[in-house]
From TrEMBL:
Pfam families: HAD_2 (PF13419). This is Haloacid dehalogenase-like hydrolase. NCBIfam families: HAD-SF-IA-v3 (TIGR01509). One of its GO terms (molecular function) is phosphatase activity. InterPro entries: HAD-like_sf, HAD-SF_hydro_IA, HAD_2, HAD_sf, PGP-like_dom2.
Length: 274
């Protein structure tokens, strides 16, 4: 870690990382699959859907599910089912403590750690998922102007993860304050991204940022044979070009941890003030 500049910002995904919305999505989908006499999601299919906005509307899911209803009907029913379940989202283990710690932390040169959210969920989805007091409190660590959501006007259509745009927009939101205060702009290599999805890791790497991958256990098991490719952003799940933005295997820019509870602050030169 000595070869990297001090961390000045931490940027977080939300779904499946800070709150259990990915599990809610799986439950919603399985409920409808059962309703129409189809088998539950398999681990390989679930791995391909995690972190991809609108994944249950796409070819990967529908070619596998072979539902006896139209995609449009499934989308309507799925939206209703998810909206009902998403109201019960809860923080995942270690999420609140980590954000609380980072909120009062400093790096090795004494700078505060700036925090931002970069989530592919829409504004309407965000409001539903933060309905409970505990999720609302958790996400309050990110001021509204430091939250970049999937329908943010700064994002071009079709440029969701694994494109780097959402992370670069989050960095821009942090620098609007930093530069205004007369400080040097935060550079991408001074940012640490926290992600649970494979496409999210790639987005962070393409943005030129360091990445902590915190996958769901099912996802971790599915991608264990190609872990090094995931951390380099080189799985090729979604082709978007710009290969020069990708990382290199074993370049030290990313690591995998089993949960947010396992994040080692001091390894990254971050020190929590008592």
């Amino acid at each position: 870690m000595d070869n990297f500049p001090a961390i000045r910002a931490c940027i977080f995904d939300m779904d499946g990382l800070l709150i259990n919305s990915e599990d809610m999505l799986t439950q919603s989908t399985n409920s409808l699959l059962e309703k129409y006499g189809r088998p539950a999601l398999t681990a390989p299919i679930r791995a391909q859907l995690m972190g991809v906005p609108g994944s249950t509307n796409g070819d990967v899911f529908h070619n596998w599910a072979r539902l006896p209803i139209s995609r449009e009907q499934f989308a309507r029913e799925s939206s209703e089912e998810m909206r009902r379940r998403f109201r019960n989202c809860e923080p995942l283990p270690g999420a609140e403590k980590l954000l609380s710690d980072l909120n009062r932390a400093r790096n090795a040169v004494g700078d505060r750690i700036a925090l931002a959210l970069a989530s592919g969920t829409t504004s309407a989805g965000y409001e539903v998922k933060t309905s409970r007091p505990e999720t609302k409190r958790l996400l309050s660590y990110f001021p509204p102007d430091k939250r970049v959501l999937g329908d943010d006007s700064r994002l071009s259509p079709g440029r969701g993860k694994p494109a780097p745009d959402i992370y670069l927009a989050a960095l821009q939101s942090l620098n609007s304050v930093t530069v205004g205060a007369g400080e040097k702009p935060i550079m991408p290599e001074e940012c640490l991204v926290f992600e649970d999805s494979v496409v999210g890791v790639e987005a962070g790497r393409r943005a030129g940022m360091r990445v902590i991958w915190v996958p769901h256990p099912d996802l971790a098991a599915e991608y264990r044979p190609v872990l090094k490719d995931v951390l380099a952003g080189r799985t090729g799940m979604v082709k978007i070009g710009d290969e020069c933005q990708l990382g290199e295997v074993d370049d030290g820019w990313a690591e995998c941890i089993p949960s947010l509870e396992h994040f080692d602050h001091e390894k990254y030169g971050i020190f929590v003030l008592s």
